[in-house]
Amino acid sequence: MFERSRKGETALLIQPHAGGPPDEGLLEEFADLARSAGAGVAALINARIDRPNPATLIGSGKLEEVKAACEATGADLVLVNHPLSPVQERNLERALQRRVVDRTGLILDIFSQRARSAEGKLQVELAQLKHIATRLVRGWTHLERQRGGSIGLRGPGETQLETDRRLLQKRVEQLQKRLDKVEVQHAQMRRARVRSELPRVALVGYTNAGKSTLFNALSGADAYAADQLFATLDPTVRRIALPGGNAVLADTVGFVRDLPHELVAAFRSTLSEAREADLLLHVVDAADPAREERIAQVDAVLAEIGVGDIPQLLVYNKIDRIAVRAAAQDDADAAAAASMQPRHDRPGEARERVWISAREGLGLDLLRAALGQRLGLRRIHAELRLPPDAGRLRAHLHELGAVRAESHDEHGWRLRLDLARADAVRIATHAYGAPLQALLLETGGSPP
């Protein structure tokens, strides 16, 4: 075996593809992934594969071409935009005398750099160990040597490979227990947010669509935002003010096409914010020529994690970056966005859309109004009489800041309310919230 370079800063990229012309968008995204991991891209090579080689994925001729390109460019790392079996990875490394990393390994490396919270780091390590476990295949002779043969160690013994597998499995079990404990704590926190009666909104979308920038613009937070893939991994939750009431907004990890399933499973925490949301803000890069394809890819991942039926509001972000398209294309969307005019579209059968620029602050008021409408945040301005035994309901209304004036007599309390209708509906579903049901009927609409 060769001596593995510890640098891996100069990468040669291989894009396998079936018959027909290669997908340039796929290769460009893979190059962005490589740069996000900190690698410089020395060369990009398309490799047509009609029948994958079980030993090396690519054919012998292409393998020689890759080896020559590595020598010419000085690349010390080869990145393959395709899952590699352990055997394929090992054979490629032996033939190229360089480190070889597949798509899953590259995304895991990026995740390991970006995770900031203790839970995020645990999730990344768990996913990495599960990936490494499949790579423990007698690639190095020291893994085959048996313990035993010396005094006190004779017997069937245990190979170093078996020892490594056992220790790795033990670490995986430890991490899983710690993550389960953290998940219980987060579930308790989420239940507390549910008890606060605030509707929940989750930002979802293709990576680098501007979710974190929008999150900061709506919430006033300072979550990390950058023009790179997977800038956000750890979930961030903030309360935001909307016309008619408040809501809870959660930022989540961005998706890419062919997101490895083990990563979807590993990041349960950030995805649980999407699973428990009342509304998904699906953020789209309006300047991306492949935006419709990106929307479909995100929808596919959302369906995979079980949130495909949650209502969505499409947010076309980055309208300040859209280049003016040819008038002959007759693209109304492009024309409106190119002129940097935010708008709120509610076409007949299509999904509701809001066009904004989070970075420039364009259209944020439109988006807040759309959110308020979708979440039913109309307000109730009325007087409510409470009997003396309705102390719990009175305390809850005070917690929400809904009581503007209050008086008390022998019959109970008289409260003047300024309350979000959605909050009133939620409270009225509880046994102690029964006094609100008559008020809901008086102010229009049916109680729950």
Model description:
Residues 1-20 are annotated as: Disordered. Belongs to the TRAFAC class OBG-HflX-like GTPase superfamily. HflX GTPase family. Pfam families: GTP-bdg_M, GTP-bdg_N, MMR_HSR1. Its cofactor is Mg(2+). GTPase that associates with the 50S ribosomal subunit and may have a role during protein synthesis or ribosome biogenesis. The chain contains 15 helices and 16 strands. The protein starts with 9 loop residues before the first strand and ends in a 6-residue tail after the last helix. The chain is of the alpha/beta class and 448 residues long. The chain has helices at residues 24-36, 60-73, 86-96, 103-114, 118-133, 160-195, 211-219, 261-266, 268-275, 291-304, 332-338, 364-374, 391-399, 421-428, 435-442, and strands at residues 10-17, 40-48, 77-80, 99-102, 146-147, 158-159, 200-205, 236-242, 245-251, 279-285, 312-317, 343-345, 353-355, 379-386, 403-409, 412-420. The protein has 4 domains: 10-111, GTPase HflX, N-terminal domain (Rossmann fold), CATH 3.40.50.11060; 115-141 and 159-196; 198-374, Rossmann fold (3-Layer(aba) Sandwich), CATH 3.40.50.300; 379-442, Alpha-Beta Plaits, CATH 3.30.70. β1 (10-17), α1 (24-36) and β2 (40-48) form a beta-alpha-beta unit. Mean pLDDT is 78; it is low at 138-155 and 324-330. Helix content is 41%, strand content 21%. It has a 7-stranded mixed β-sheet, with helices on both faces. The chain has a 4-stranded parallel β-sheet with strand order 2-1-3-4, sandwiched between helices. A 3-stranded antiparallel β-sheet has the order 14-16-15. It is elongated.
